[in-house]
Every structure is written in structure tokens, then in C-alpha cells.
Amino acid sequence: AQSVTQLGSHVSVSEGALVLLRCNYSSSVPPYLFWYVQYPNQGLQLLLKYTTGATLVKGINGFEAEFKKSETSFHLTKPSAHMSDAAEYFCAVSGRQTGANNLFFGTGTRLTVIP
Amino acid sequence: DAMVIQNPRYQVTQFGKPVTLSCSQTLNHNVMYWYQQKSSQAPKLLFHYYDKDFNNEADTPDNFQSRRPNTSFCFLDIRSPGLGDAAMYLCATSSGESLLFFGPGTRLTVL
Hints:
By secondary structure, chain A is an all-beta fold. Chain A has no helices and eleven strands.
């Protein structure tokens, strides 16, 4: 079974500061890992994904995440926050054999960017 | 552009009055999903179609039904909406891998 824990339901950063959103997963099999972003009254948009290969994954809008198996983590970072990054961020995990119909989302982290 | 479209974006219904939400896709994906997302919560999978094969999540209420007349379209029917059904409803598609493409959602208000 898979599950995801996102530490911190709300994170506030100043514009230009480092963004760090934490995600820890639990999986009985090697996982696929995802970060999605949701802007107000919009659907979810894929930021990045890890399936195999390089553990540092680069996504859209300057975000990246590193898969650390020893820490069962997949934290999302961005070196310099922009006002447009204010949104809800969801980490998700699925088993490699089960596909998106067994995709488990975390409870989300709302990012606020302070001017 | 290939995309997932949901109509309407905002739907208001009365308690107990049936409502249908629509989703269409131009991605030609064989899998379509319906998620329910309540305020400040993660999306919750209601059901999905793999081609015409319908798969209901165990805890999806009987009040929720779905139809997929063809590859492009999928509908969510709520037979007797209650106040607890007010939420954002998200449609998503997949080509069979663990990658979802979401529509913009329909926000349902129940009066």
C-alpha cells in the first residue's frame, strides 16, 4: 500500500526566498512520485515526476525535487519564490504496477508568497 | 491543443435535484477519472473508466453514477445531491501510465 505525508499544510515565504515543500511517502514497492500544483478554482497541473533514473528531477516553473530512497522523501524546492508560485501543491505516489487508478495524494500544502 | 474540458465550470443545484457534470477530452486517452475535492482536502477518487470498463471505488456513495458513451466524453451524475456533496469535481485522463491530465474542474454548490 502507498501513502503520502506532506509536512505543513501552510508555508509562507518571502518573494525571492527559497521554497521547500516537504513530502514523505510510504510504499511497499518502488514508487512513482509526482508533484502537482493547483491554482485557485483550477484543476491540478503536473509540476514534475519521478519514475526511474536520475533522482533529481526538474520540472516546470523552476521547480525541482529529489527522490531520496533512504529518507523516503521527495521534497519540492525552488531557489527563488515568485508571486505567481502562490498555489496549493500536492505530492502523490503510485505503485509501479498499478497505474494512476491507484494514485494517492497528500493533503496538500498551501504556499503563500509575501511581497 | 489537446486538453481536458469540463462543463460547466460552476454549477448550482438545489438539495435533492439531480445534476450532471460533463467532461470531454481531445487526448484520446483510454482512461478517464472522476475525483471529488472538498475544500482544503486532497482529491478523492470516485471512479474511473478503462475504455468502457467501469471501476467504482469501494467508498463511493450510490448517489454518484457515471456514464462514458464514447472515448471522448464522460459524465458524472449525482442523483440526489446533499449539502455534503458540495465540492470541486475534477475529471482527469490517462494513457494508462501513472500520469494524469486534469480538467479545470466544476465547482458544485448545493443550496
